[in-house]
Design a protein that fits this description.
Strand order of the largest sheet: 1-2-3-5-4
CATH superfamily of the largest domain: Aminoglycoside phosphotransferase (APH), C-terminal lobe
Low-confidence stretches: 1-23
Strand content: 5-15%
CATH class of the largest domain: Alpha Beta
Radius of gyration: 21 Å
Structural class: alpha+beta
Shape: globular
Helix content: 40-55%
Order of helices and strands: HEEEHEEHHHHHEEEEHHHHH
Mean pLDDT: 89
Number of strands: 9
Length: 347
C-alpha cells in the first residue's frame, strides 16, 4: 500500500496533518473519473496530503510505477490556467517547475511531477545556511533575465496598494480591533505612496510572487524545484529576493541580510543593464520588504478570521518584527513605528 508523505504540505508553507477525505467527496469522485479516462496505469489510490493557504488540494498516487501529484483546484474560485502558463515560461528558461503530464482546466485538475519533500526550508536550517542561498540567487537572476513576461499581469500601483491595505483591513480591524485608527490613518496614505513609488521606480522583470523556502525543493539531482508560482506578475526586480530573505520560518541577522543584498545587487543589477548604487538598492529591498511583510500579516489575519485557517496566526509575530526592525532604520517612518510599537498593536 502506497503511503502518503505527510511533509508535502510544508512545500506550501503549512506543516499540517494528512488531509481527511470525506466518504462523500464530489471533487474526489470527479478526479477519480478523470484519472480513469486517461491512458495510464494507476497503481495506488489517491492519498490526501496537506495543502496550502488556498482552496487547492493535493493528492499523491502512483502511476506507471512513478509517484505523481494530483492538484485539485476547484473552479470558479481556483483556476489552473495561470499555473499551466507559468510552468511553460519557467521551463522555457530551463527552470525546474513540475512537469504537467495531464490537465483538465475546465474541471480544475492537473497531474504533476512529484518533486519530493526535501524543502529548502529544512535545508536552510542546516549547517550550510551561510553559503547555500547563493545557488538560489542564480535562480533569481535567471527569472529576471530569461523568463518571458509578455502578457503577464502588471504589479501595478493599484495591486500594490490593495495588498498592503490587507494590514489595516484585517490585522488592525479584525485582530487588533481595539486599536484606535486615527493616528494610523493620518500616516498611512503618505507611507503607502513612498512604498509604492519605490516599487514602481525599480526595473521590472518576472516576479514569482511567493519565492520562499517552502516553495523551493532540492530535487534528487541536487537541483532546485520551484512551485506555487501561479500568481506570477511583471514587477519590481527586488521582490523575489526579499521574499527569500524575510522568510516565515527562518530569521537571519541583519548583517547577513545586508551582505546578501549586496551580493544580489552585484549579480543582478549589471545583468539587467542598470546602475543602482548599494544604498539605493538596500532601500529598494527594505521598502519592498515592508510592502510584502505588511501584506503577509494582513493575509495571515484574513486566513484566520475569514477562512478559518488557524495555522497561520502564530506566524504573525515574526513578520511583525521584520516590519518594525525595518521601520526603525528609516527616520521618515518614525511616526508609523511609534504606532506599531503600542502595546495594544503588537501581536
Amino acid at each position: 500500500m502506497f503511503q502518503p508523505a505527510h511533509d508535502y504540505g510544508k512545500i506550501h508553507g503549512m506543516e499540517t496533518s494528512e488531509v481527511t477525505l470525506a466518504a462523500t467527496d464530489h471533487r474526489l469522485e470527479l478526479a477519480k473519473s478523470w484519472l480513469q479516462s486517461l491512458d495510464i496505469e494507476q497503481q495506488s489510490d489517491l492519498c490526501g496530503v496537506a495543502g496550502d493557504a488556498s482552496f487547492r488540494r493535493y493528492f499523491r498516487l502512483k502511476i506507471d510505477g512513478q509517484s505523481r501529484i494530483l492538484m485539485d483546484a476547484p473552479p470558479p474560485g481556483e483556476n489552473v490556467r495561470p499555473f499551466i502558463d507559468i510552468t511553460r515560461r519557467l521551463h522555457s528558461a530551463n527552470l525546474h517547475a513540475p512537469e504537467i503530464f495531464y490537465s483538465d482546466p475546465g474541471n480544475g485538475f492537473l497531474l504533476l511531477e512529484d518533486l519530493g519533500d526535501d524543502l529548502y526550508r529544512d535545508v536552510l536550517n542546516g549547517p550550510a545556511v551561510d553559503t547555500l542561498p547563493n545557488g538560489l540567487f542564480e535562480i533569481l537572476k535567471t527569472m529576471a533575465l530569461d523568463v518571458n513576461t509578455d502578457d503577464l499581469p502588471q504589479y501595478s500601483a493599484a495591486m500594490l496598494k490593495t495588498e498592503i491595505d490587507l494590514f489595516p483591513d484585517w490585522y488592525l480591524d479584525q485582530h487588533r480591533s481595539a486599536v484606535s485608527r486615527r493616528s494610523f490613518d493620518a500616516l498611512w496614505g503618505d507611507f503607502c505612496s513612498l512604498i509604492i513609488d519605490s516599487a514602481l521606480d525599480q526595473p521590472a522583470c518576472f516576479v514569482h510572487h511567493d519565492f520562499h523556502s517552502s516553495n523551493l525543493l532540492r530535487t534528487p539531482a541536487d537541483g532546485v524545484g520551484i512551485i506555487d508560482f501561479q500568481d506570477a506578475v511583471r514587477g519590481p526586480v527586488s521582490y523575489d529576493f526579499i521574499s527569500l530573505i524575510w522568510d516565515r520560518y527562518i530569521s537571519w541577522p541583519r548583517q547577513q541580510i545586508e551582505d546578501w543584498m549586496e551580493d544580489t545587487r552585484q549579480m543582478l543589477v549589471p545583468a539587467i543593464g542598470q546602475n543602482i548604487e548599494p544604498l539605493e538598492w538596500q532601500r529598494y529591498c527594505d521598502l519592498m520588504g515592508l510592502q510584502r511583510n505588511l501584506k503577509i500579516v494582513g493575509i495571515f489575519a484574513r486566513l484566520y478570521y475569514r477562512d478559518g485557517k488557524d495555522g497561520y496566526i502564530e506566524m504573525i509575530p515574526r513578520f511583525y518584527d521584520y516590519i518594525t526592525d525595518t521601520l526603525r532604520r528609516y527616520p521618515e517612518f518614525a511616526g508609523l513605528l511609534d504606532f506599531m510599537e503600542q502595546d495594544s498593536c503588537v501581536p
